[in-house]
């Protein structure tokens, strides 16, 4: 197979990259397998272009985007807020103990937090925001020069993997890139417009890798394992980035920008490129809580891999994105993955401590990702069910 390297996953004859987002729905599971093994994501319309013409038409939003059962505003919790963690306080010996407890509680009870005082220079953030926004402003044909290719996995410009003709579609376009290590990059998908794109993403990736490493060390301290126990699993700090463009939608309450999912990754750092709310997380009672982004903060999500490594102490929480009736929204998520040769399983120190034994199987990371895709294509609800003991 062409173009498969250590950093990409092979499933059947298609190459799949991690951190994809495939909707949780069961419909179309059977036909999905046929397409998956044929190595094709089904072609669907570009949503930015669709929105441009449709929003000013008098027509109903196309049926494939209508999600009546899932988007009702009445099930969204008002007034709650996810925890805020201060990286400056975590690094300061005077306050680190207190802030560590705050971090631990956020990871255990919420699986999400906003990270402030992260020390990433404003200029680095402003540059990457500008270049990501500029990219989506390019004419459609110019963006398509970096489009996903048939059988080439999910990297590039396009939509999340579409596996059936009846599957509901998300109201969004995205560009997904393998970022680190450098040899994982596929230059075909890296925008050359705006010209500073690559440099801005490089600097941003280096800064977010540093922040992720700090957080992993702090989490190790909170879990009571040696400081490098988690960073070892993330050796080489593989990163990939998904930037999602959510066009406005006149019928915003009827569609979803991103279907409910958990992040099949270690740690995800989300940057709001535009100042528009849209991310919602699922609380234990099944209701959705809207995340109100703080200026300059990252929204951090605990991914499935951290849930497993922590033997279930930390939670990987389902989340989704809704869209705005008249504002575009752009988010950029930097995913931090384990090293491809890692075995993903509960840390032995924690299994001993918890008394109840291991709550998850230990599997090669590559096998974890394969089971992630197989679960989705089978229409099973969660790949994590297959991991639980
Ligand atoms: C993701 C994600 C949420 C958002 O890309 O995994 O959850 O608000 N994005 O765009
Ligand atoms: Ni996500």
Describe the 3D structure.
The protein has 389 residues and is an alpha+beta fold. Helices cover 31% and strands 19% of the residues. It is built from twelve helices and 17 strands. Strands 4-5-13-10-15-8-7-6 form an eight-stranded mixed β-sheet. The radius of gyration is 20 Å and the shape is globular. The structure holds N-oxalylglycine (OGA) and nickel (II) ion (NI). Nickel (II) ion binds next to loops. The site of N-oxalylglycine (OGA) has 12 residues, from strand 8, strand 14 and strand 15.
Key features of this structure:
IPNS-like_FE2OG_OXY, 12 helices, 31% helix, single chain, binds N-oxalylglycine, binds nickel (II) ion, Jelly Rolls, Fe2OG dioxygenase domain-containing protein, 389 residues, DIOX_N, iron, disordered N terminus, alpha+beta
Set down the secondary structure blueprint:
Elements: E1 9-11, E2 14-16, H1 29-37, H2 47-54, E3 76-77, E4 84-86, H3 87-91, H4 96-109, E5 112-116, H5 122-137, H6 140-144, E6 156-158, E7 173-180, H7 197-223, H8 229-233, E8 239-246, E9 258-261, E10 267-272, E11 279-282, E12 288-290, E13 298-302, H9 304-309, E14 319-321, E15 329-336, E16 343-344, H10 348-354, E17 363-364, H11 365-378, H12 383-387
Parallel strand pairs: 3-12, 4-5
Antiparallel strand pairs: 1-2, 5-13, 6-7, 7-8, 8-15, 9-14, 10-13, 10-15, 11-12, 11-14, 16-17
The structure holds N-oxalylglycine (OGA) and nickel (II) ion (NI).
Domain Fe2OG dioxygenase: 237-338
Pfam family, one: DIOX_N
Protein name: Fe2OG dioxygenase domain-containing protein
């Amino acid at each position: 197979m062409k173009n498969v390297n250590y950093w990409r996953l092979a499933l059947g004859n298609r190459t799949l990259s991690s951190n994809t987002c495939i909707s949780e729905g069961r419909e179309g599971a059977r036909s999905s397998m046929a397409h998956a093994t044929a190595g094709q994501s089904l072609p669907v319309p570009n949503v930015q272009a669709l929105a441009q013409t449709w929003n000013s038409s008098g027509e109903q939003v196309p049926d494939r985007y209508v999600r009546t059962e899932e988007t009702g505003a009445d099930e969204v919790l008002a007034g709650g807020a996810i925890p805020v963690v201060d990286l400056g306080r975590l690094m300061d010996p005077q306050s680190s103990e207190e802030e560590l407890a705050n971090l631990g509680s956020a990871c255990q009870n919420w699986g999400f937090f906003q990270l402030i005082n992260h020390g990433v220079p404003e200029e680095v953030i402003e540059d990457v925001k500008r270049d990501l926004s500029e990219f989506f402003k390019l004419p459609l044909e110019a963006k398509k020069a970096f489009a996903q290719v048939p059988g080439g996995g999910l990297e590039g410009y396009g939509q999340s993997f579409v596996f059936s003709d009846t599957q509901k579609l998300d109201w969004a376009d995205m560009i997904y890139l393998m970022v680190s290590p450098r040899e994982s990059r596929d230059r075909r998908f890296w925008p050359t417009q705006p010209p500073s794109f690559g440099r801005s993403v490089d600097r941003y990736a280096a800064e977010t890798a540093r922040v992720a490493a700090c957080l992993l060390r702090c989490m190790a301290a909170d879990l009571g394992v040696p400081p490098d126990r988690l960073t070892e699993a993330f050796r080489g700090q593989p990163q990939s980035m998904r930037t999602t463009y959510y066009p406005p939608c006149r019928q915003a309450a009827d569609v979803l920008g991103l279907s409910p999912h958990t992040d099949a990754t270690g740690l995800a750092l989300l940057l709001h490129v535009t100042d528009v709310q849209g991310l919602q997380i699922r609380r234990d009672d099944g209701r959705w809580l809207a995340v109100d982004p703080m200026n300059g903060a990252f929204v951090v999500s605990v991914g499935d891999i951290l849930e497993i490594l922590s033997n279930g102490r930390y939670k990987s929480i389902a989340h989704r994105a809704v869209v705005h009736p008249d504002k575009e929204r752009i988010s950029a998520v930097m995913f931090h993955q384990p090293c491809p040769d890692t075995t993903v399983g509960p840390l032995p120190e924690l299994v001993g401590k918890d008394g109840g034994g291991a709550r998850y199987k230990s599997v090669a990371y590559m096998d974890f990702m394969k089971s992630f895709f197989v679960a989705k294509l089978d229409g099973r609800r969660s790949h994590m069910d297959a991991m639980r003991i």
